[in-house]
Amino acid sequence: MMDFQVVVLAGGTAKKLAPLVSKEVPKALLPVANRPVLSYVLELLESSNLKDLIVVVEGEDAALRVGGWISGAYVDRLHVEVAAVPEDVGTAGALRAVAHHLTANDVLIVSGDLVSDVPPGAVAATHRRHGAVVTTLLCYAPVSGPSDTGSSAGKDKVKKSRYNIVGLDPTRQLLLHIAAGAEVEKDIRVQKNILRAVGQLEIRADLMDAHMYAFKRTVLQDVLDQKDTFHSIRQDVLPYLVRTQLRSEISANGLHKVEDNANGRVSSQNYVTWMSQHREIAPSAYQELLALSPRSPENALRTHKCCAYIASKSKYCARLNSIQAFSDINRDVVGEASHLSGYSFSSQNNIIHPSAELGSKTTVGPQCMLAEGSQMGDKCSVKRSIIGRHCRIGSNVKIVNSVVMNHVTIEDGCLVQGSVICSNVHLQERVVLKDCQMVCALWPDSV
Amino acid sequence: MAQKKGHRSLSSDDPEELARVPLQAVLLADSFATKFRPITLERPKVLLPLVNAPMIDYTLAWLESVGVEEAFVFCCAHSQQVKDYLNKSQWMKQPGTFTVQPIESHDSISAGDALRVIYNLGVICGDFVLVSGDTISNMSLKEALQEHKERRKKDPLAVMTMVIKHSKPSSLTHQTRLGNDEILMAIDPDTKELLYYEDKTDQSQRFITLDKMLLASTPTLHLHNDKQDCYIDICSPEVLSLFTDNFDYQHLRRHFVKGLLVDDLMGYKIFTHEIHSSYAARIDNFRSYDTISKDIIQRWTYPMVPDVQYFGNCSQMKLDRLGIYKAPEVDQSRTAQIRAFSLIGNGTAIGDHSVISNSVIGQSCTIGRNVSIQGSYIWDNVIIEDDCKLSHALVCDGVHLRAGVVLEPGVILSFKVEVGQKIVIPAYSKVSLLPQPSKQDSDEELEYADANSGVVESPSITSIANTRNVDPVPDSPDAEHSDTSEVGISGVGYIWSTTEGGHEEEWRHSIAPIPAEKLMEFCLSAHTDLGVSNQDVNSLPASGELQLDSESTGFDDGEDYKDSADFEKEVEATFQRVLAGVNPENVILEINSLRLSYDMSHADCAGSLFYSIMKSALSAPFSSNLSFGNLI
Questions:
Q1: A110-129 pLDDT per residue, tens
Q2: Distances from the Cα of B98 to the Cαs of B17, B86, B93, B310, B362, in angstroms?
Q3: Which run of H or E residues covers position A432?
Q4: ipTM for the whole complex
Q5: Which of A111, B114, B161, B174 could join A211 in a cystine, given CB atoms 3.0 to 4.6 angstroms apart?
Q6: Which one of B195, B198, B208 would you mutate to disrupt binding with A, by most A Cβ within 10 Å of its Cβ?
Q7: Per-residue pLDDT for A357 more than 50?
Q8: Taking a contact as any Cβ pair under 8 Å apart, which residues of chain A between 137 and 196 contact chain B?
Q9: In this predicted model, what pLDDT tens digit does every residue of B352-376 receive, in sequence order?
């Protein structure tokens, strides 16, 4: 569609998420409402009719597992190539590794841990409409659930750091400044020449970079070639392009083909008209001067556009990049953002698989999920929790605000609250878990 | 602090009286600046005519129109003249609700001092409008006042509301059309609170540095450089006490506004009110004088236009087509042309074949034949003889230009200057009867200075005439000024030398339009500038970029390479000069200094020298007999 190639950066076995992820379960396959998180991105792309995908996975083993799952689940729906790259090459490195596969005019790069309902087509359309070099998706705060409302100031700080400090033009379409909120220590440093070009710059601190970027392919390849130290798209490539947008270096090096040069020229010309629209009051001589000024190809000012697509506040957008985010997203997907889960909810606003067995006087509250083959004893109570496949849960068990993965055994009288319980865990009688965040068994292969 | 408490209790004594406090205004009839010198040595700035009415009349008329009931005119420089003018004018006489009361002070050297004086007088009892006497506006204050009052009710710390207006500075000269420097403001878009204000921006600084804490309370802020400060402020009485508490506050913006924004202890807040369709501007320099005059003639300031009687301008101006204003008694020759956007005052005579365009001519002027006046401002009782050419000049009262005088763009002729025949006054000159004060440091904040404090050797008009080899026809020397030795034979006045380093900047604030070469220059430098800025960015750690260190080293390599190439070129060029006949001793010295300045090693130096020797040997194999050996 629209000559866009899609690269999904699915990550590998991120250390940040250990021990949630492992060789068995790479990040892309972490369950969100009992589906691998990667499936959310793939279906989002499918809904925008983007079906030719390259999924980049860090590590051979992880790639095999992800590839196996994709070919099983999407065999006749998507055309997916899974590429394995070494670990710790960073997002830029991962793209370098697959750069030779890229042939389309524009490339859409999506992080595999994105859970969102923002149509990628809208980002792509914004990108095309402006002839931008890069367009990034910015989102407002993810819908905050009940666990956040009671959160301490410390948690707030964690949240705060997820946001970026973003500079936008008055129409909120051009991205003029970007910095990660956590990395800005004290001062926000805005380039004056960019402010001068637009006159008014809106600085926001409540947007986060959702890791969905549309890049002009030639520019992306140039930057990756020339700046071989760039490690990350978010931290290096994007800020670099934003910084140099009034004096672009990418197309001035003559490294790429003629057609790109022409393209670059056109966009730079657009930019000049855009600047002059903003100059409402100016010495009348300015217009002539623009014509006078030496615009020979070598020293003409090259500019490029960096755009932003800001998702509306009603859209859900979150990245599974921390353990906190894992439980938040799991909760949201069966709760406030339930349309993302793809399941049909019962009249009690929950999902109980027909094969699940419930004992007498066991209640499953709204915004809960009970997957296939799970059994629950008598007098249990489940609130706002997700229980995976083939779990065995005894009697008098309370599960609140938790995620229980597959094949978990919980014996009688346990209380699980605000915790994540990984697959194959066995909880014996009367275990009380409160806000444990995580309980994992040792994996069979590592014993 | 005690004073402040006293003040607070006073204002909170009876709230019902507070509700009916008359709207007051403080008008600073002194700009505390020297931008209008040499004219302001003789007359205060607020009394200078702007399209045939003194500036202060515009301000007072506006204050009256917005419902101000009491206006306190603070006079400092030439206070007697201001008071005399007010006494004569109808402002003091009229029986209406608008009263004008002069306040005189002689030792105030800044707006801060003025406000402290007013505080001590204790005349201000509620919110007041603070303007300077050179403000031209037709905005309605109702909305801004309302906003201010409502904010005050909710938050007593909101002490001031500033009026701002959209005005994009030129991207080349970084100044607005009023000739002001660009202003950087950060404004909260929801509350309109001013969060950051920077007027004298450092052009060499490529980044604007904002405190991250600004975004702690609000998720978003707007950073502007396209707003113009109209210098119309609605202040609460606390502003005066703040000035008294902080005795070092001098400048309204640079000290007071910045001081409040930086100080988070007291938590005083400043808000902005943006106007869109109405007019508000302040005459800060000659360029704004020019711009605002044109705005008045083109009726942006309606109803403050010459043909509407809004104050005592009794002269019945008549508006013709093409924006030509004429007083009833103009003696215009049949062959004289008055072109678009001009104003001719009462009792002025214009001779044959003279052409006037885009200019303002005052009352009782005499303009000879074949005179061309373009974009100029001629005040009252000026005599311009035949064949003069004036472009973009400002000519004060009583000036006499003899035949054939040429005023180049940007010339200022102060009161009663006389210029001899066929003299060309160079661009941007300022000519005054008063000699230039030699030192300006201590009195810089004052409009007037002791004229006798020191006299700089300024070339008189005669000396210019001599250097130009024009024979000035002996004219009757002015008896009045014959005591000064520098008075010319045909002219009277001193040409002021521009202050050191000021000459390049003279064009910025001049009446003359910015010369095209200048703009071209800026255009070119903007290109190179941006290039430099990018390299700067690379060497300065920009926030949010972790890999920067390694990246910038990559850049440094490029730089090095460029440097060595440069060095080789330089050495070669220097070496060529030996062949051209320059003393080898000197060249050795030069090459050595080149080596040092590029920080190159001896080997590099010898290498590039050898290269140049070989190169020259190749190109001119037979011609050179010099021994190269002693060079190395």
A1: 998 899 889 998 999 999 88
A2: 20, 13, 10, 14, 29
A3: strand A432-434
A4: 0.74
A5: A111
A6: B208
A7: yes
A8: 164-165, 167, 178-180, 183-193, 195-196
A9: 999 999 999 998 999 999 999 999 9
